[in-house]
Amino acid sequence: MPTAAKLVAAVFFAALGYLMAEAYKPTQPEGMRFGYFAEICAGIGLLCGWIVMGPLVGRGYGRAWGLGIRTAITAVFFATILFATYEMVLRSMKLRYDGPMDAVIGAIALVLQYGTGMVDQRFILTILIGGAVGGILTEWSARRWT
Predict the structure, then answer these.
(1) Structure confidence by residue, pLDDT tens digits, 49-63
(2) Which residues contact 8 (CB under 8 A, 6 or more apart)?
(3) Is 56:74 a contact under the CB 8 Å cutoff?
(4) Are 44 and 72 in contact (CB under 8 A)?
(5) Residue from 46, 55, 52, 37 nearest 1 by CA
(6) End-to-end CA distance of the chain
(7) Reduced to 3 states, what is the DSSP secondary structure of residue 92?
């Protein structure tokens, strides 16, 4: 059921997904091409805002900031899995893996490699502050337009 809180959460976490992607880019090697990386992360943020944060409103402002951070971390998790799987498929089409288990292990290695770029102060602050603000804003909108 569409609600104002789900809409606010979707829009805010889409913007946060874009900002997290932009905060992640400087941690990667120079010359790396990102393509639609930020836009895809915004789409993942939109879905996480609608599906994860939207239904969790109404539990008070004290829990809202934590739920917002949880939603931001969920978006980062799914973006990491998506991009690692995509890269694994591209590599497997170039016959870089000996078999399916080798490809799965390669995808896990890619997740860990992408995760090392996330250990950056700017990226972590974007998740924490943005998630908390998103949770509080979603809670406020649920109280305002219910």
Answers:
(1) 999 999 999 899 999
(2) 137, 138, 141
(3) no
(4) no
(5) 55
(6) 13
(7) helix
